[in-house]
């Protein structure tokens, strides 16, 4: 829980340093967002590598399977939905539009392939990130969404499902759904702000209907 009068990072809820006082996000959280953005972009990035898992066994660079006669697997839907319009690129473009609107900049223009658009959006978001950390009151939401995109892509590439969300109960009775990676959260019921360690100490929400 954070004293409302103490300026705190809206993402990790740590008290801000003196030189960060005007900010919504602390330096560490800002660096984490930047890292997450960078891992998504580029020819070796997570987004590009989703192509490798779209149709297993068909990659030209994949390990040679001599004499394989297995039927081709259907295109996998989860990586496809991340890679298609409406997925990673659209989420980032939506944030970029939001940034531009708040800054009264012209609406950004998209050109080229989805990969090219992704790289452009990431580059632009990284340029504007210091501004967002300092002046965008929803930067915590931005951080969460970028981290989620990264986890979803990594989950597809590693073949592991996205981390399970665990329901925990706030003192007011409201249930928060967190993962082990959740850096902090605010209870929508009573507005209490929880840091990472505090969230993990909350009791698990009862599953009453389990029968
Ligand atoms: Zn922080
Ligand atoms: Zn609460």
Written account of the structure:
By secondary structure, the chain is mostly helical. The protein has helices at about 25-40, 45-55, 75-85, 90-100, 115-135, 140-160, 195-200, and strands at about 165-170, 175-180, 185, 195. The structure holds zinc ion (2 copies). One zinc ion (ZN) binds next to loops.
The main pleated sheet reads as: 2 strands, antiparallel
Helix/strand/pairing category: mainly alpha
Elements, N to C (H/E) = HHHHHHEEEEH
Question: What is the residue-mean pLDDT, rounded to a whole number?
Answer: 84
How much helix is in the residues? 40-55%
Total number of beta strands: 4
**How many structural domains can be distinguished in the coordinates?**
2
Distance between the termini: 35 Å
Taken from the alpha-carbon principal axes, the silhouette is globular
**Residue windows where pLDDT falls under 50 for at least 5 positions:** 57-68
Beta-sheet strand percentage?
5-15%
- Gyration radius (Cα, Å) is 20 Å
Number of DSSP helical runs: 7
Key attributes of the depicted protein:
single chain, 211 residues, mainly alpha, two-stranded antiparallel sheet, two-stranded antiparallel ribbon, 44% helix, 7% strand, binds zinc ion
Quick overview:
This protein has 211 residues and is mostly helical. The chain contains seven helices and four strands; from the N terminus they run ααααααββββα.
């Amino acid at each position: 829980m954070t004293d409302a009068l103490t300026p705190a990072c809206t993402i990790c809820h740590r008290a801000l340093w003196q030189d960060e006082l005007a900010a919504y996000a602390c330096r560490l959280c800002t660096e984490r967002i930047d890292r997450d953005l960078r891992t998504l972009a580029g020819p070796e990035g997570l987004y590009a590598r989703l192509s490798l898992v779209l149709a297993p066994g068909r990659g030209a660079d994949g390990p040679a399977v001599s004499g394989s006669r297995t039927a081709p697997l259907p295109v996998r839907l989860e990586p496809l939905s991340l890679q298609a319009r409406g997925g990673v690129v659209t989420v980032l473009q939506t944030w970029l539009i939001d940034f531009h609107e708040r800054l009264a900049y012209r609406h950004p223009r998209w050109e080229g392939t989805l990969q090219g658009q992704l790289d452009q959006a990431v580059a632009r978001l990284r340029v504007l990130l210091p501004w967002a950390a300092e002046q965008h009151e929803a930067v915590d939401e931005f951080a969460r969404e970028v981290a989620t995109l990264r986890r979803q892509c990594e989950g597809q590439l590693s073949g592991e499902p996205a981390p399970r969300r665990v329901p925990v109960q706030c003192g007011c009775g409201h249930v928060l759904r967190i993962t082990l990676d959740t850096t902090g959260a605010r209870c929508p019921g009573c507005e209490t702000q929880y840091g990472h360690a505090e969230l993990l100490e909350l009791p698990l929400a009862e599953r009453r209907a389990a029968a």
